Amino acid sequence: MKGDKLKNQYRVNEEIHAKEVRVVNDAGATVMPIQQALNMAHRMELDLVEISPNAEPPVCRIIDYSKFLYRQKKHQKEMKQKQTKVEVKEIRFGPQTDEHDYAFKLKHAKEFLEEGNRVRAYVFFRGRSILFKEQGEVLLLRFANDLEEYGKVEALA
């Protein structure tokens, strides 16, 4: 299950092997022996959770472990939603693309770049139109030059 990865990440109660721990709560942080911290957590009917095992002494918190796991999962889910996936949008030209079509495709490319996407532009040749290879190169260089203030060219292929 997905939750198992989170459960195994933190040590709880008797799983903590340090002699002394730093217990952090709303009032502040105090260093105490592990047994005293476990007794305090038991009296409050909560769990002693090791938050930072690499610290010296390890940092623990007295909280309800199931609520803690729930909040951690919720936080991870929110962070995953905030991530933006960069898409590659393609724009294709013919070797003899008209000025109006060029302007229209340029406008779309600007919108794509402002949204944070990448743009891949290429010229397709059909049949004998391969004779206009130089026109296609000029068109792509002009396109890259017009979009210079919105993004940079990564590769010319």
Explain what this protein looks like in three dimensions.
The strands form two sheets. The protein has a four-stranded mixed sheet. Strands 5-6 form a two-stranded parallel sheet. The model has no long low-confidence stretch (mean pLDDT 84). The chain has 157 residues and is of the alpha/beta class. It has five helices and six strands.
Fill in the keyword field for this structure.
about 160 residues; four-stranded mixed beta sheet; 6 strands; two-stranded parallel ribbon
What is the rounded Rg? 30 Å
Approximately how much helix is present in the residues? Answer: 40-55%
Shape: rod-shaped
Strand order within the widest beta sheet: 2-1-4-3
Structural class: alpha/beta
Task: Note the beta-strand portion.
Answer: 15-25%
Mean pLDDT: 84
How do the SSEs run, as a string of H and E? HEEHEEHEHEH
DSSP, total strands = 6
- Report the uncertain regions: none
Tell me the distance between the termini.
Answer: 45 Å
Q: Please, how many helices?
A: 5
Report on the biggest sheet.
4 strands, mixed
